[in-house]
Design a protein that fits this description.
binds (2S)-3,4-dihydro-2H-pyrrole-2-carboxylic acid; alpha/beta; pyrroline-5-carboxylate reductase activity; ProC C-terminal domain-like fold; EC 1.5.1.2; 13% strand; NAD(P)-bd_dom_sf; 279 residues; 6-PGluconate_DH-like_C_sf; single chain; eight-stranded mixed sheet; Rossmann fold; binds 1,4-dihydronicotinamide adenine dinucleotide; 2 domains; 8 strands
Length: 279
């Protein structure tokens, strides 16, 4: 079924619906526009009226109802919280059709759960993106459901590839992916906060501490990416015998920071599994 959402002429590009335009929905929306997608090829669905008005004003996109977005779109991206997925799927299931591509970005929610709520033959792809997509440096993993063909996977890769790297993984690895790259930016920002605070404790003006930490992070990340050298080797290159870095790293080890990261990421993966179970 196709429900026209407007009488205005529009571009011939395939239509993509985005349901849920919070942090991640806007990240995807703005990335697709930066990558050259026409604003009239994107249909946004957002529950909060003030947020919907803000996005219409900022991006000149059409904010439409669930039924219009799903009826019209070739591909529908689900970017609501995991806890809202069941209700959204119940609402859109009557207008979804076999062959249509449904791309879920929700943590924890399995393709099996989605497939159980939509008509047979709807192609479901599960994605775990991250917020650096906002600056086209995203990292997304994708996993196909049962009715997905190569064209569907290529379309999902193109959507996420517009804002960063994409890797295909088996779905059973998605909880680990969520713990590593989905939540990962938050760990990095947490470390950055801590390093800036430490710089202030050592007497640096906050703006200077902030500049030093951010450029150190960017430089270190660029070294990792461009040299391909193992992080252990890069860390050892900084660590002079009996020097300052060795003194600092000994404190980190004494405070079990490495073990804390492992425990934290195990907790994230466990939470992803809980979200799958609906809690
Ligand atoms: N924020 C992040 O870094 C990441 C988020 N995700 C996933 O993306 C999804 C969205 O997360 P955020 O954007 O952070 O949450 P958010 O709370 O910022 O955005 C969710 C949006 O969905 C809207 N919404 C809720 N129910 C709706 C409905 N029935 N119809 C239309 N809109 C509806 C809300 O008003 C809100 O604007 C989640 O499932 C999360 O697991 C995945 C990876 C990273
Ligand atoms: O915190 C969350 O649940 C979402 C999924 C990964 C990053 N943010």
């Amino acid at each position: 079924m196709t429900i026209p959402s407007t009488d205005q002429p529009r571009s011939a590009a395939p239509l993509t619906g985005i349901i849920g335009a919070g942090v991640m929905g806007e990240t995807v929306l703005s990335g697709l526009l930066r990558a050259g997608r026409a604003a009239d090829s994107l249909l946004v669905v957002e529950k909060r009226p003030d947020r919907a008005a803000e996005l219409e004003e900022k991006y000149a996109v059409r904010v439409v109802s669930h039924l219009h977005a799903v009826g019209d779109a070739d591909t529908v991206m689900l970017v609501v919280k995991p806890q809202d997925m069941g209700a959204v799927l119940d609402e859109i299931a009557p207008v979804l059709r076999a062959g249509q591509l449904l791309v879920s970005l929700a943590a924890g929610i399995t393709t099996g759960f989605i497939e159980g709520k939509v008509p047979a033959g709807v192609a479901v792809v599960r994605v775990m993106p991250n917020t650096p997509a906002l600056v086209d440096e995203g990292m997304a993993a994708i996993a196909p459901g049962t009715s997905v063909d190569d064209a569907h996977l290529a379309e999902a890769e193109a959507l996420l590839g517009a804002v960063g790297k994409v890797v295909r993984v088996p779905e059973h690895q998605m909880d680990a992916v969520t713990a590593v790259s989905g939540s990962g930016p938050a760990y990095v920002f947490y470390v950055v906060e801590a390093m800036i605070e430490a710089g202030v404790h050592l007497g640096l003006p906050r703006t200077v501490a902030s500049d030093l930490v951010i450029q150190t992070l960017v430089g270190s990340a660029t070294m990792l990416r461009e040299t391909g050298t193992h992080p252990t080797v890069l860390r050892e290159q900084v660590t002079s015998p009996a020097g300052t870095t060795a003194a600092a790293l000994r404190e980190l080890d004494d405070h079990k920071v490495r073990a804390a990261f492992i425990a934290a990421m195990q907790a994230a993966a466990e939470r992803s599994r809980e979200l799958a179970a609906g809690s």
